[in-house]
Amino acid sequence: MTGTARFDVRRSLPWLFLVLGLAQAGHSIEEVVTGFWRWMPIVSEVVHERVSFIPVVGWSEQGFTVANMIIIALMLGFSPLPFINYTWAWKIVTIVAAIETVNGINHVGAAIVRANYFSGCISGVALILIGSLIWAPKWFSRKGTI
Fold this sequence. Notes:
Elements: H1 9-33, H2 40-50, H3 61-78, H4 80-84, H5 87-114, H6 121-140
């Protein structure tokens, strides 16, 4: 057999986005179980000190859980659209994947800075890997299209 196997992002994208939605569900579970909402005022204050227009945010356990359920519902509810091959859906998928990658980087980065476990850091690795598989091929392609 000659040649090398290529990763066909266009064919894999709908499945990758569905898996990203499931990874976000796991991430939300990890955050809720480990009490990430308790860290929100601390983390958002650190961000606010560096980027003043970002507000300091505090959540109740219930509010945080509901917000995460909404995120999961939106991601999984949107996941059939790339299978239908709507062009506009591909753009949204790429943006969501980039956001989820940054989300994972933030959680893993906090664990590295603390040199200890930080809420969401385990599932954050999955968000980084899966999200990057979605947006990176488009970002680094010569054509700029998926």
